[in-house]
Structure formats: structure tokens, C-alpha cells
Amino acid sequence: MAIIHPTSRLGLGIDAGGTQTRWALASADGTIVAEGHVGGLTALQMASETGRAAVHASFTALCAAVLAAGRPDAVCAGLTGFGGDSVQMAHWLATLLAIAPDAVTVRNDIEIACLDTFAPGHGYLVYAGTGSIAAWVDQHGQFQRAGGRGVLLDDGGGGYWIAREALRGIWRREDETPGAWRDSPLAQAVFAHVGGSDWAHSRQFMYGQDRGTIGRLALAVAASAEADPEARRILLDAGLELARLANAMVRRYGLRPVVLAGRAAELHPLLVQSMRAELPAHVPLQQKTVRSHHAAARIAAQARHFPFHRADNHHE
């Protein structure tokens, strides 16, 4: 951690996802001077009292860690599932950090990731984390998207989707041939992750855990890929799902480079290979590690506003 001069302007960047919430402090010249993480959260949790309490608890832990490093002058927060209502979350962050509410900006996490990847109008980002989405900030600064509709509806190719596909296949085989899991490296790895081979463990895992925790089961699928053809098929299919998102953007807006990012995209090379094969040969594809919390911190430190307007017909 860098030594922070007490008069230095600091911007706090937050990148909140279903699996992990990362934060960073940047100085006015863009240098990252501190960073850390707390548990995952999503804007979708704001729909219930329990969820709001969980978001506030996460913000409390995050702000305590931030203040131990330095007090920010402005905040730029990107949250997965964000649909436009930022008043309550901005108020919480401002109160916890003892800064003015109008110094806090809350956006969708993918919007910040786009700006960290391409200048407006230059390319498409396909992001595969717990969920999945393709996005583009066009030459007029307008945010466009495909996918990102949530794990219950779609989000094909994301970690949650991979986990669900694995458990679905395992239990369908158990319906037909009880005990088949003993001959499946994938099933053995999945059951070890969820805590047991009986249905009660899988049921509790899928219906009693948050989506980020479920998404981490994709790690067990990827770890089984060398030994289990079903695990390989799931990862290949995940690549096809992510290619579908990229192809949708190309069809709608024209040929541009595509960047693939996100933790699920890094699970196994098969996923990227499958995506590449499904894209037109003339569409450039690059894999990148996006540090959205760094980008958000620099935006906050420089007191810049996002150069786009919402396209409401494409948002959640």
C-alpha cells in the first residue's frame, strides 16, 4: 500500500459482483494507492428488506477498510444488476464515508468495465462472471447491451449457468441410473464441492445459497475437464453462449473487435477456444483481465462523469 499524503485527492472505485466486491483508492494522477475486497453483493438485493440489510452490511465492511487507508473525496461504484435507482445506496456510501451524497455515483458494473476496455465506439466487451453480458459504449456515448438478463432467465456461459448445467446433468443421470455419479469425475468433484452426494446437499446448495456462491461451483466443473467429457461439453457450450452475445452485437452494430473478460472466462481454455470457433473469422477476439475497480477509482479521482446515456429499452 502506498503512503497517502493527507492533502491528496482520492477517488474510491467499487466493483460489486455476485461473487466478490472489490474496491480501490486512486490519487488524482491515476495511481492506485490501496485496494481490497469484501463479499459479493448485487443491486438486485435492494428489492427485499433482507437483501438491503446485506448490502448495507457489505458497504459498512468495505467503507471501514477504505477509511483505514484514506478518506475518498468522491466515489464511483459499479454494481451488477443495477437498474437506475441509486439514491439509497449512494446515501449509505456517503454516510459511511462522511462525504457529500452528490460525490457518489452509482452505475452498472459493466458500464465501467466497457470504459476500461475500449474508447467509446471502438469495440465490444463480453463479460462472463457469475452471469454474462455483452456491451458497447457507442461513438455517441450511449450504452448498448445484449444479455445480462439475470441467472434465472438466461446469463448463458456465466459461472451460475455452468454450475446449473453440471448439476442438472448429474441428477438426470441419477434419475435414470442411481449411483452413476461414482463413475463420473465431474459428479464426484461437484458433490465434494456441495458437501455430499445425496439430493439434500444439492438442493440446499442450489436453493439456499446466493448466486455468487453457486457460481463458484463452476470451478469444480473446470477442474474436471481433463478427466470428464461431460465437463468439457459444458465448457464448450459456455463458449458458444458467450459467442452468441458477441455475434448479436456484431449483427446489430457492425464489425468491431471483441474482448472477453471475467472470472468465468478464465476457468478453462476450452471456453475461449469454443467462443473463437463460433465467431466469424474476421472478428478479432482478445481475452483480458478487466480491473473495473481501478477504472472506477480513477474516474472518481478525476471527478469525471461517464460519457454515455442510458438506453432504457435494453436495461433491466
Automatic annotation (TrEMBL):
Residues 12-271 form the ATPase BadF/BadG/BcrA/BcrD type domain. Pfam families: BcrAD_BadFG (PF01869). This is ATPase. It comes from Rugamonas apoptosis. The lineage of its organism: Bacteria, Pseudomonadati, Pseudomonadota, Betaproteobacteria, Burkholderiales.
